[in-house]
Amino acid sequence: RYGGADHHASRSPVTMAARIAASPVLGAPVDNGGSMRFARAAPPATFSRRARVWHFLENDTRLMSFLTCVIAISTLTFILDTSVEDPVTRRVFFIIETVAVSLFTIEYVLKLIFAPNRLKFVRAKMSLIDLVAIGPFWVEVFIANVLQREASINLSWVRVLRLFRIFRIFKVSKLAYGFRIVMAAMRMSMTSFSVLVFFMLILVILSSSLMYMFEGTDPPHPMQPRPELFATIPDCMWWAVVTITTVGYGDAVPASPAGKVIATGTMCLGLLSIALPVTVLGSNFTKVMDMYEQELDM
To answer: Would residue 183 count as lying in a domain?
Structure first.
């Protein structure tokens, strides 16, 4: 394909980026409509014009850095726009947003035109994220300016969807590989996490039932200043989750001696139930990093 690029790639040494992308530790490479080996292994000089444009759109570090800055500015504008009332400032934010989304739209259209496999490109995960990032903005503009119905339609869900563009940062190689390393470590720790969830569920039910018995009975315990917080077992479950996770909001506090004993036991068991899986996750993360570094040295 593309002037014998695959033949040249088969004779060329695989680059470090390609080895990282094909790593069995990190899972399958992120494919956005073209061959990973085709996109990274062969020198751009062997590509046809269409292939060179695709290679530039997918792999040029300067373009990625520029788009990352645009993503950051656009996301910051989206956040600040929710706290600004001045119409002039909001107009400036809208112009920045329009320029950013226009750039994302141009990038998406160019990739759609020059992709080696357009159907595969459209169905790729990153392409779907791109589409979700730019689509709601144009829908909002169309409704507000063409249909003139913005006042009668709630567009808050459309504006929130535009925040999906932040996930495009994972297209930058180092962030993508780092994210996949973390996900690989979490997959290796799923057994420990399932045990944690099961144990915490039992602990929440048991501690909340006991707390309801001593703090939320009718009539309530005379030492409890806010018995309504322990009025039902579901109310006590909120207290149990806050206590087990060591958050400790302080909105619901046991007052009876028996309630304090139950709270003490819940705190200690909560610390143990969370600390053990975290240790397993840290150990698996170290293993994945070691495997990752060994593959880079191959």
So the answer is: no
